[in-house]
Amino acid sequence: MRFAVCDDDMLFQNEIKKAVYTYSNMRNLDLAVDEYICGEDLLNSSYEYDVVFMDYRMSGINGLETAKILRGKNKDCVIIFLTSYSKIVYEVFEVSAFRFFEKPLDVDKLHKALDDYFTTIGDDYPILLKVGRETVCIKTNEVFYLEADNKKCFVNLVNESLHCARTMASIAAQLPASIFHKVNKAFIVNINHIKNYDKEYVYFTNGARVPASRKYLPSFKEAYKNYAKGRSL
User: Fold this and answer.
1) 232: confidence class by pLDDT, cuts 50, 70, 90
2) CA–CA gap between residue 153 and residue 161 (Å, rounded)
3) Phi, psi angles (nearest 5°) of residue 126
4) 4, 42 Cβ separation under 8 angstroms
5) Residues 191, 99: Cα–Cα separation, whole Å
6) pLDDT tens string 150-160
7) What angle do CA 45, 46, 47 make, to 5 degrees?
8) Around Cβ 84, how many Cβ atoms within 10 Å?
């Protein structure tokens, strides 16, 4: 996921970056943080950011005007204001700001805001995968299942398979544990895409199937039962 910091105070930029990377290590997330010293530079970027940390007073257009333009370009972007100008607290809600914090930075409050953000987006969020020489961005719910390949892994989507130079365990750590479960020592499946299962196989809605083992089947069945609770007829 890609975050941006828009603030003309480079020391404060570094504080936010440090806090975000600390959070990403605690939560085992793959986050990148870019820095901008003015609104114009942010708006001229070719990236669409998931989260933007915004100051108010900067050279050129202020943070509020920057946020208004940014909101028109990227309606899904989460904007968190971090500023010394508390008097604009009510104005920032005109651009649907997710949070408003006064400087200096309170790391605990920032981490709580990120927890709330990830709770809001739920189980379907973007992750980055290194596939050959390319970096591919996919949503977690696009993944049907993972297949171990020694120290590498196949990430299987609805109609293609991505071969990644990372272990199945390391990729699984980025995925929501509520919907991804192991059915075999070499396979982790997404419950959302399962059509049915028996004692030998798990079958997917796209026609694929993977072998299930007696070792992992009981825990998988329990997880699937809990997932389907309230949805069964």
Assistant:
1) very low
2) 10
3) -75, 145
4) yes
5) 33
6) 999 999 999 99
7) 90
8) 11
**Which residue, among 144, 145, 146, has the nearest Cα to 168 in the 3D structure?**
146
Count Cα atoms within 13 angstroms, Cβ side, for 51. Answer: 26
| Tokens coding 134 | 């390319």
Indicate the length of the chain as a whole number: 233
Q: Name every residue whose Cβ is closer than 8 Å to that of residue 70 and which is 6 or more positions away in sequence.
A: 42, 43, 52, 77, 79, 95
Residue 229's pLDDT is: 61
Nearest-CA neighbor of 16 among 42, 53, 50?
53
What does DSSP assign to residue 61? S
DSSP string, 77-133: -EEEEEES-GGGTTGGGGGT-SEEEESSP-HHHHHHHHHHHHHHHTT--EEEEEETT
CB atoms within 10 A of CB 148: 18
27-34: Cβ within 8 A, 24+ apart: 27/118, 28/173, 28/174, 29/1, 29/174, 30/1, 30/127, 30/128, 30/174, 31/1, 31/2, 31/3, 32/1, 32/2, 32/3, 32/128, 33/2, 33/3, 33/4, 33/5, 34/2, 34/3, 34/4, 34/5
Name the percent of the chain in helix, strand, coil, to the closest 5. Answer: 35, 30, 35
Going by pLDDT thresholds of 50, 70 and 90, the confidence category of residue 179 is confident
For residue 219, pLDDT beyond 80 = yes
Q: Is the Cβ–Cβ distance between 152 and 171 less than 8 Å?
A: no
